[in-house]
Amino acid sequence: MVKLRLKRYGRKQRAVYRIVAIDVRSRREGRDLGKVGFYDPITNQTYLNVPAILYFLEKGAQPTETVQDIFKKAEILKEFLPKLNKI
């Protein structure tokens, strides 16, 4: 199973995260299948590659709760639901 989850980068007390598609059996810093975004909790900046996110969601990837909250703020899931209805 593939999940969309956060992968930690940065230094001590200054974490930044990449949003990646990764196998559930991999560890947090393990090899990812694809990078789909970036999240900096300190400055509250996000960058999301929407086509890549929609691709992995259509293939059955499940976002974690934290990533799902990031997607809701960016209204990504609103774009995903109509595409599923067309299929």
TrEMBL record:
Annotated protein name in UniProt: Small ribosomal subunit protein bS16c
Organism: Rhododendron delavayi (Rhododendron)
UniProt keyword Transmembrane helix, yes or no: no
Matching InterPro entries: Ribosomal_bS16, Ribosomal_bS16_CS, Ribosomal_bS16_dom_sf
Keyword Chloroplast: yes
Subcellular location: Plastid, Chloroplast
Matching SUPFAM superfamilies: Ribosomal protein S16
UniProt similarity note: Belongs to the bacterial ribosomal protein bS16 family.
